[in-house]
């Protein structure tokens, strides 16, 4: 792993992503987190699982920004679905992003680290959240950005990232959408229910894997980067970088969200965002 000064100077300050190959090789989780171990340690505990009919949670669908059904279920039942011991037409993903590792899976914290020491020293702060991810290969994270410095660590399997730098903002469409949530009907089918009291959500309607260039011709000028993050590797995903994420089936990951600095880089992004909106209004 890099020194705090080196990492800040070479990667954080210039806002560049990188893959670090030996940053988590000492984690017990790399060897311990088998399905049998997770069943033994977490087992019957009830946890939050995102359930969708198509694998797209927090994504634009039918002109809505649709959030998943947040289902409370025993973790062992979720593992049965991931291991295909039980079949379901729906897609299941443990992906609750409110520091769910420490809040819902405290039994697993001792197998990783509460923070990444060299990153905490580089930024002068501890992470705002530490999240645990486990799901099916059909679960896809739609293109979006976060206001966090993100260290994304793959424990088993692989994650497939498509990345855009903040400078691609003029080529990436944003629109406002009515927020809604998937609800399961009595017959087991999903219905989309509007969150009528919530404000509209700005989101990206474009699928970067199959972009509609007739509808969004500007996207042809964007320059995506693609990378695979393998077990034992860590991706540094800088703040405000757009990212779309897929995974191998049953992939397990832990990520650390450090709040970004609202400094000159953020100001430049806001300027670019405002100019993009102004040009579209002309």
From TrEMBL:
GO cellular component: cytoplasm; nucleus
Compartments, record wording: Cytoplasm; Nucleus
Broad class of where this protein is predominantly found: cytoplasm
EC assignment: 1.14.11.63
Cofactor entry: Fe(2+)
Domain JmjC: 94-273
Keywords: Cytoplasm, Disulfide bond, Hydrolase, Iron, Metal-binding, Nucleus, Oxidoreductase
Pfam family, one: Cupin_8
InterPro entries: Cupin_8 (IPR041667), JmjC_dom (IPR003347), RmlC-like_jellyroll (IPR014710)
Transmembrane intervals: none
Molecular function terms from GO: hydrolase activity; metal ion binding; peptidyl-lysine 3-dioxygenase activity
Keyword ATP-binding: no
Its biological purpose: Bifunctional enzyme that acts both as an endopeptidase and 2-oxoglutarate-dependent monooxygenase. Endopeptidase that cleaves histones N-terminal tails at the carboxyl side of methylated arginine or lysine residues, to generate 'tailless nucleosomes', which may trigger transcription elongation. Preferentially recognizes and cleaves monomethylated and dimethylated arginine residues of histones H2, H3 and H4. After initial cleavage, continues to digest histones tails via its aminopeptidase activity. Additionally, may play a role in protein biosynthesis by modifying the translation machinery.
Known partners and oligomeric status: Homodimer; disulfide-linked. Interacts with DRG1 and DRG2.
Protein name (database record): Bifunctional peptidase and (3S)-lysyl hydroxylase JMJD7
Encoding gene (name): JMJD7
